[in-house]
Amino acid sequence: MGDIINLRTQRKRKRRAEEARKAQENRVSFGRTGPDKQLERLKQGRDRRFLDQNRLERQTSHADNQLEQSSDPQGLRPS
Description:
By secondary structure, the protein is an all-alpha fold. The chain has a domain at about 1-50. The chain has three helices and no strands. The longest helix is centred in the first third of the chain and has 24 residues, at about 5-30.
């Protein structure tokens, strides 16, 4: 006669093996190499600096100034 096995344990082992196989497939399909990630970070930094340097400042109107002053109940913010 064969060995006695716990079916729950066998199901867990099978599920874990399937998940590991699927994870490996995903790493191959969707993974990026270190240089790819570094290049992406450099591009994002360059784009962020470009946008910050070329940002247009919003002109505040008199109504905005009034709103800012009224939102400071203790008058601590300089005018």
